[in-house]
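Sanity check

After download, print the first record. It should look like this:
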Amino acid sequence: MSGETAEGEPQRLVADAIVEQLVEWGVKQVYGIPGETSLQIVDAIRRRSDQIRFVLVRHEEVAAFMASAYAKLTGDLGVCLSIAGPGATNLVTGLYDAKMDRASVLALTGQVGLQFLGLGSFQEIDQHALFEAVADFNEVIDAPEQVTELLTVAMKQAIVGHGVSHWAYQRTCRRSPCFPT
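Expected structure tokens:
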């Protein structure tokens, strides 16, 4: 974890809260490729490697297909992770596979900072529009206070609705200290 509290304890970041939620919902593995917009989550998974593991793949499309196959074979929630922009676009084919077979999949994607949206910044695309047709739940999280509730809704939608949920986390949000819930 990054930094320390006034009491000298490690500071709990939003990325840690995300991984804690995944573990609490029984997620055992996350498929994906680490990158600048996903490193904090991959690092938080590493810190909880006794409960959850990160499965490195060679392409984001494979991550989505693996999450879909895992969900179909086990009946559990499959989770894939990608960076913002091009990485996120590579998930779409595998997520459509999950959608068509009613497999419960959560796609976690990075997102550039809100101040860069709409400016044509590096790796900036309209991810919300991209995932609108494939995901039953499709939200961008931009405040630490939203994490627990909206991630719970995303997982619940995917599991109960037997479909795809897309949950994008904004760059500055995942590095922020997490507030107690």
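If your output differs, re-run the checksum step. Summary of this record's structure: The longest strand covers residues 105-111.
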